[in-house]
Design brief:
By secondary structure, this protein is of the alpha/beta class. Helix content is 48%, strand content 12%. The protein binds coproporphyrinogen III.
């Protein structure tokens, strides 16, 4: 008989026997076994070959007793399935399109059938579910419409988001239509991931922080509410990830996800106070805290644990992905400290 993983219980704000932990980018460049495989295959080949994506997803679980694994993939692959060229350049990062303008890329988008176009992701999910340790949850994910819109319009990463913001302010109706199309594609993709077996969904809205609270409420929140409501119907918990959370916390609370993943710029105790006991939270250690010597690292982890665990509904994580130069033994230490922490309301 399979029991509900403690990670899923914590996402639903139910009591747990110990605090669940997983780490964003836990499968990645700080692990020598990832770097070895990455030396043999390009990043996109790892993502698009289900056996390799499965191997990478499970790599950190060989070392650490994490309570969840995140599917190894990338938020930009959906844009490729929507008709946009995608490449990863070692030096400049992702590149979208073949020199067309942002407006041209936006106009040429289509809503793909995930089974036809993202079958490699769904196959990877089924393979991972077949070999993941008992009690360890599998998290599926996607980008959120706004963050995907920035990559699409800019053609890659950006410093000032000039193209996105000028499009948004000059053509608000077209911007809303774009957000709607992206939300439609995301809803179908996330439902397909759930049907393939993921236990939770995380939506990455990395760049929401560039918006004022008023613009966030006007241009992003309604699309997020519709997307989250559509996915929620499927019965798995939803997590919303963003950076620079404190300015948008109240708006994000209205999105309808079960969990908000917070960065380190907000005090976790204060965030829990503001959000109340119904809303689960995830986070929020600064990834660079892992560069401290062990005794100080332990103190930092305990401080976060104490603030996060005052009510049920807490998942330990960093505020953003683990840095590639992080010492692996410090990750080991972090996981041990979380595991041995006595939960105030333990089941
Ligand atoms: O957490 C995980 O390891 C799961 C897989 C995952 C990746 N990217 C793998 C990846 C997830 C959930 C993401 C999300 C993602 N991708 C986000 C949102 C979260 C965040 O970090 O803010 C964004 C903005 C992207 C887009 C992206 N992908 C960029 C800008 C880059 C280049 C910069 C970088 O970190 O290298 C990527 C590449 C990428 N995605 C790598 C990995 C492991 C590095 C590829 C490599 O091994 O060279």
């Amino acid at each position: 008989m399979s029991t509900v993983p403690r990670f899923v219980k914590a996402c639903l704000a139910q009591p747990v026997d110990r605090i669940p932990v997983w780490i964003m980018r836990q499968a990645g460049r700080y692990l020598p076994e990832y770097r070895k495989l990455r030396g043999e295959y390009p990043f996109l080949t790892l993502c698009k070959t289900p056996a390799l994506a499965t191997e990478v997803t499970l790599q950190p679980l060989e070392r650490f007793r994490m309570d969840a694994a995140i599917l190894f993939s990338d938020i930009l692959l959906l844009l490729e399935a929507m008709g946009v060229d995608l490449a990863f350049d070692e030096k400049v990062g992702p590149r979208l399109g073949r020199g067309e303008s942002g407006e041209e890329r936006v106009r040429s988008l289509s809503v793909p059938d995930p089974v036809q176009e993202m079958g490699y992701v769904l196959d990877a999910i089924r393979q991972i579910k077949g070999s993941i340790p008992e009690g360890c949850a599998l998290i599926g994910f996607s980008g959120a419409p706004f963050t995907l819109a920035t990559y699409l319009i800019e053609g890659g990463s950006s410093k000032d988001f000039y193209a996105t913001k000028s499009f948004m302010y000059k053509e608000p109706a077209a911007f809303h239509r774009l957000m709607e199309t992206l939300a439609d594609a995301l809803e179908a993709f996330l439902k397909a991931q759930i049907a393939a077996g993921v236990d939770a969904i995380q939506l990455f809205d990395t760049w929401a922080m560039i918006l004022s609270p008023a613009d966030y409420r006007e241009l992003v929140l309604p699309h997020m509410q519709r997307l989250v409501a559509g996915v929620k119907h499927e019965g798995v918990p939803t997590i919303h990830f963003s950076l620079g959370t404190s300015t948008l916390l109240d708006a994000m609370d209205q999105m309808g996800t079960d969990v908000l993943s917070l960065d380190w710029k907000i005090d976790l105790g204060e965030a829990r106070e503001r959000l109340g006991p119904q809303k689960a939270v995830q986070g929020n250690l600064d990834p660079f805290a892992l560069f401290q010597e062990p005794a100080r690292l332990e103190e930092s982890v305990l401080e976060i644990l104490e603030k996060g665990s005052r009510w049920p509904g807490y998942v330990f994580n960093l505020g953003h992905g683990v840095h590639p130069k992080t010492p692996v033994e410090n990750m080991q230490r972090l996981v041990e400290v979380v595991h041995s922490f006595p939960v105030p309301q333990a089941t």
